[in-house]
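Data availability (excerpt). The following record was deposited with the supplementary files.
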Amino acid sequence: MKSFNEHAFSRRQFVKLGGGSAVALVLAGCASGGSSTGSDSSASDSSSSATSIKPGFITLHDENSTYDLNFINAAKEACQEQDISEDTYMLKTNVPQFCHSTGTKAHTEGLDNYHNAFASIYEGRYLAGVAAGMKLNEMIDSGKITADQAKMGYVGAYTYAEVISGYTSFYLGAKSVCPSVTMEVTFTGSWYDETAEKEGATKLINDGASSFPSTQTPWVPLPPVKMPAFPTSPTTEARRMHAPTPRFNWVPYYKFAIRAVMDGSTIDTDWTGTLSTGSVELTDLNSYVAADGTQDKLDEVNSKLEDGSLHVFDTSTFTVKGAKLDSYKADVDTDANYTPDTEVVSDGYFHESEYRSAPYFDVQIDGIELLDTAF
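Predicted structure:
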C-alpha cells in the first residue's frame, strides 16, 4: 500500500495534526488534472487556486477543550489568511481520531500523503519556568518562603515523552534562576479531565507546592495557593489570574500545508515549528502576579533560545541519579523495530525534536519527584 487510502484521497493531501490525537486535516484539490501553476503565476492565480481547495478539519473534542479550541481557531485563521471562505472549509468536532501531531511514524512509513507536525513547545515551557522561578525568588526575598521551600507542582496527563519533556523543561527554566527549586509531578491519565486536574492540583498544594501548571482545562477552580499557578491553557480567564503560559500556534503550519497543496509542492514529512516560526508563543505577562524584571529576563532568554546560544536540555544544568548525562540512546523510529539506538546527546545538550518532530526526551532528572506513575 503506497499511500493512505490512495483511492479515496486521489489529488488530496492528508496532514497528520493535533497533539493527543486531537486534530486531522484533509486538503482536497478540486482540479481534475495536473498542476496548472506556471512560472508567471499572479496574485489572481493565487486567489483562484484558493477556490480549488476545500480543507476539512476533524477534532476529537470541541471548543470546550482548550487544546482543541487552539487548533480550531488556528484552522479558521489560516483559512481566512488564505482567502478561503467559511462556507468552503469544513469543521467536524467530537470525532474519534486516527492521527495526531505527536505521531512518530511518518518519516519511516514511506507514504506520500502521511505527515507529522509538532513544535518545540518545550522552549515555551522553559520560558514559563523562568517566570515561575523569578516569582519564587521574589517570595524568598520577601520572606514568604525560604529557599528550601521553593517547591513547584506539575499536573501532567500521561507519562509520555511529550509530558516528561514538558514538565522537565518547565523545571529547568525555573531552576535557571532559582537554583534551590524542586518539583513534584502527579498525573491524571487524561488529556482533558477537570475533576482529575483539580484533584491533582489540590494534592500538590497540600504537599507544599507554591506554583504549578495545569493540563488541558481552560479554568479549574482551585483552593487558595501561595502564588498564582502557571497553567498550559491560555484562556482569557486564566490570563487574568495567572502568569505567562506557553501555547502552540498552529497557524504557521496550517498556512504552510494549505499553500503546499495550492502550489503542488511537497509537505514536509516531519515538520517542527519553533519560536522563530511563530509556532511557540507565550501569553502576555500579567503585571499583577509577575516578579519585577520578568519581561526583560524572558526577552533575554527568548533571544538566546532563538539564536542557539542557549539550549533547554543543556546537560551541565541537571543530573540523573547524581551523574551528568553524557550519552543517551533514544527511540526515534530510525528502523522498523523502533530500536532505541540513536545518540541524542552531543555538543553538551540533549537534542530534543531534531531527529523527529515529536518529543522523545523521557529522562527522569534529579530534583523532580513523581508522586504516581500509574499513567
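Summary of structural features: Confidence is low (pLDDT under 50) at residues 1-22, 29-48, 214-241.
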